[in-house]
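User: I'm curious what two different proteins look like when written out as structure tokens. Can you demonstrate?

Assistant: Sure. I'll show them one after the other, since each token string lines up with its own sequence. Here's the first protein:
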Amino acid sequence: MTSGREPAENLAVAAGLIRQAKAQGAELIMTPETTNMMEPRRALMFEKAVAEEVDASVAGFSALAAELGVWLLIGSMVVRVAPDKAANRSILFDSQGRIAARYNKIHMFDVDIPDGQRYQESKAYRPGEQAVYADLPWGRLGMTVCYDLRFPYLYRALAHSGVCFLSIPSAFTRFTGAAHWHILLRARAIETGCFVFAPAQCGTHAEGRETYGHSLIVAPWGEILADGGEEPGVILAEIELERVDKARSMIPALTHDRSFSSQP
């Protein structure tokens, strides 16, 4: 997607793409980070952000999942949790439209990019405090969001919790995405022996913000199964669960973890 500033417009665009994915045979569908809005002005964001229980987008996606009979992960939504704080929340709906799990992004993107852009997520968002996984009909999913990608200990912990799928919906900057996106996603898949699903924002958003795109589906051995490029659309892959066990048996690194101490 190339999400804009208005939640209702983004809901309509996302719903069209979700329907397209269902028509092509998808049973598990995911959207990028900040699907419901990418509003660069903090004051305007808080005018539009509402609590989850009264959010029209949450209700709309719930109804859509139930109508289509699919599992639907809204990569993240801007959800108000306090007068001056939002959560960057990933929400998983089951095929009956019920919320099966929710995850609040743990790691805040407080970074000065060398291309001159500054991001201070902690000023607007309250970070999550708990890793989250959910059981799908096909296996266990570990839920993360964007900047979490750079913290491998989170994915290691999820893998040790029995996860075989990882969701990493994102809105990576064009600058950092070109340098690191493919490498980091493949590394997380290889390290954990998991499938990685990484739906991503793409293109130019309000006030000139650019995101990298290249939504990816990565196999446990690190092969890229699908790459969405730089335009909005749908990518699909057929997931063969036996590839998880095969990758982990060839390199059983998850069974070799050790604790250790360091010396100055």
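Here's a second, unrelated protein for contrast:
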Amino acid sequence: MSKSERDGERRMVERNAGEGSRTVRGFDGAWLAESTGGTLAGDGSSRAATCEVDSRKVTPGCMFVALRGERADGHDFIGSAVARGASIVLAERKGCAARGKALSVLAGKACFVLVDDSLESLQSAALAWRLLFPKLLRIGVTGSSGKTTTKECIASILSRFMSIIVNPGNLNSEIGLPQSMFLVDGSHEVGVFEMGINRSGEMGVLSRVWSPQRVVVTNIGTAHIGILGDRQGIALEKSKAFSGMGPEGAAYLWEDDDFGDWMACRVPGRVVRFGERSADGLESVRDEGLDGWTIRWRGREARFPLPGRHNLLDALAAIAVAADLGATADHVTEGLSSMKALFGRTEIVRGETTVMRDCYNANPDSVERAIGLCDAAEWRGRRVYVLGGMLELGAESDSAHRAIGTVAGNSKADALFFFGEEAAPAREAALSAGFRGSVRFDTDFDELYSALRDFIRPGDLVLLKGSRGKALERLGPLFGMEG
């Protein structure tokens, strides 16, 4: 979008919001139609304060966006969304025309804004909404891993002295990020939004919509390498997060990233490095094993409860951002000490059996880190590693799984359980590496569940690590956790 187009859109949204734009909460159908160039059908004064793309999550006073997907078409669920209280529906003309009779009865129950492309219109509306709040400092967090934890660490520190908003969970995609942006209101001083990609070109969309002034790149690893080709392709796509940044902006880059210097050359503003050597004011770090880290910064000590060096780096990235924005030692230590593990991200659950549940996602880098963390733990009992297949690796899948199998085969594990067809090469590699413990390979979840139920005993340390699609959290009931 050109500068003139941005200026025109800004004038338009300010005209619609009026003098109350600084404290505006929610929007009406007329504003949405003008923001998207859509056709208004129904009461344009109908208001919505939140946005959903899943009809099951719709609540009264919500905008429902009907999106066409590979497995489902949101237009089939408009009736359900309206029944749940959606006040505004953003939908495609063709999708509604094909269901004319079925949708005609809903015309009086919700305001419809009809467009050619629902996703593009959602993004345009989110951009228009963001332009209503020109004083909001926008921070973007991207990288191959650690995005959500870094975002939450930054938020935990900044919330000590600023009013902040973050995108919930990992709503970080070309759908989730613009959807989350409608949570911004005039009370917020800073927005910390995670920016995730799984295809080429997606970061350009996210950068245009959110246009972060500060960008954190946690690392350039191997996540989505099967889609983006190689690490160079990943770095190129991630660097597009800088495209909306001006000379007053800043990028925070890991000091040991192979692509750090390459990315630094593409930053229009300042470059701030983070890490143990680069952290200004960092006095010491002490590894507390599965209990996390003790971090001493500018005379104050934080007990950061998330274990593993990758989590330490996430904390150091957050310190770099927060210090840049004026955080004191008290803000930093209080923020880091109050952190809690996020679901499926290095969760340590203690009981008769201690479980490290790290199964929200997986790529070769993160699997090797998880194995290394469990190997390094002081443990008297058995170590049992349950490794699910890694997805989105493309042509690299077999070689990547063999590499992880070799790591697992040389680990301190007493037993290895591999799950998923993709993991077959990992099992073979573990055996080839000379692993002498118990090894099992399953493609049926119920069989994996039964085998683990019979094998696990009190005192074991169990690692659950696999891609989101493998849903290893379903093993939770074996250890007294929710599945």
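A detail about the second structure: The first strand starts at residue 27 and ends at 28.
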